[in-house]
Design a protein that fits this description.
Elements: E1 13-16, H1 26-53, H2 60-88, E2 93-95, H3 96-129, H4 134-137, H5 140-166, E3 175-176, H6 183-188, H7 195-228, H8 233-262, H9 270-294, H10 297-312, H11 314-322, H12 326-335
Parallel strand pairs: 1-3
Antiparallel strand pairs: 1-2
């Protein structure tokens, strides 16, 4: 009955303050975030495209990486365009429906990324600790299930929290001291008791963080134990190199989220919360494809072969593009 209450929450509007307290930085911030978003789009869609069209990359590890890149692209696209808009316009309002929709999508993709990173840790565990059984264990059916799990739980988690927000009432000043519709800022402008919604958010967040980190830490304990026992220095280096990119992505994304949940919700902490939110919603999706592509010989080799094919043999490049989807053809035309 939330929509029937006198304050008419469904017709409410919110104002996202963003970084408006720094008027002289609006244009520089716009240029920085626009550049970051452009790199994010090119990097993540490029990673998905390269993995899809390169036969050498048709393995479980790159299958999971392509979905991580897809999630990063969607996550950034949910948040960054509104951030860019608010940096160049005077009217920083967002409708109730728009705010709730942004929260739902951002929460869904954030949860999906948390568990996608856990899935990738399990993939590395099987590859390093049980190499002879890798192709048997990581069957196409299991890979599909492991990818479907994060998306499904992301929808369930996000839908649960969204419904709890829809039960709140909003009246008076709806000014949000952030650049996105995050759970804590939506709750902060509610004029009804947010206890249930806050409790659900805390419970779901704790479950997601504890369970995903438990999977990651458990697998890496076994991975490091196996690596240390390897007789070959070259084998150890290759195994560590394989895990380094994933560990960097986990540390950056999970570490920022844990930091945000440890920050006291006081007036003096809002700037830290904004900066932390920028790191995991805007910067992290940009860095992930860079980390994986710059440290990955297979990806670099596939990109190099595609560029050589396109430059030295346009006819082969044409046939390559003809075999790709419409989105992939457009992207390959732009980067190659």
């Amino acid at each position: 009955m939330w929509f029937a209450e006198g304050n008419q929450s469904v017709g409410a509007t919110f104002t996202l303050l963003g970084f408006s307290e720094y008027p002289d930085l609006q244009v520089p911030l716009f240029l920085v975030f626009l550049t970051v978003y452009a790199v994010t789009v090119v990097g993540n869609l490029g990673m998905v495209t390269i993995i899809r069209i390169s036969p050498k990359l048709h393995t479980p590890m790159y299958f999971f990486l392509s979905h991580l890149s897809f999630v990063d692209f969607c996550y950034s696209t949910t948040v960054t365009p509104k951030l860019l808009e608010n940096l160049v316009v005077e009217d920083r309002t967002i409708s109730f429906t728009g705010c709730i929709l942004q929260f739902f999508l951002a929460c869904m993709f954030a949860v999906a990324e948390v568990f996608m990173l856990a899935v990738m840790a399990y993939d590395r565990f099987v590859a390093i600790c049980k190499p002879l059984l890798y192709t048997v264990v990581m069957s196409p059916e299991l890979c599909a299930s492991l990818v479907a799990g994060p998306y499904t739980w992301g929808v369930v988690s996000s839908l649960t929290l969204t419904c709890s927000l829809l039960a709140l009432s909003f009246c008076g000043s709806n000014i949000m001291n952030n650049f996105l519709c995050e759970h804590s800022v939506i709750v902060s402008v509610s004029c009804s008791d947010p206890f249930i919604s806050q409790g659900l958010c805390f419970a779901i967040a704790m479950f997601n963080e504890v369970s995903s980190l438990a999977i990651i830490l458990t697998t890496y304990v076994s991975i490091f134990g196996t690596i240390i026992k390897m007789p070959s220095a070259g084998g150890r280096h290759k195994a560590f190199s394989t895990c380094a990119s994933h560990l960097a992505a986990v540390t950056m994304f999970q570490g920022t989220i844990l930091f945000l949940y440890c920050v006291p919700r006081s007036k003096n902490s809002w700037l830290m919360i904004k900066v932390g939110s920028v790191l995991y919603t805007v910067v992290s999706p940009m860095l992930n494809p860079l980390i994986y592509s710059l440290r990955n010989k297979d990806v670099k080799e596939s990109v190099r072969k595609l560029m050589i094919t396109q430059l030295l043999c346009p006819e082969a490049g044409f046939h390559l593009l003809a075999g790709a989807t419409a989105e992939h053809r457009l992207f390959l035309t732009l980067i190659l």
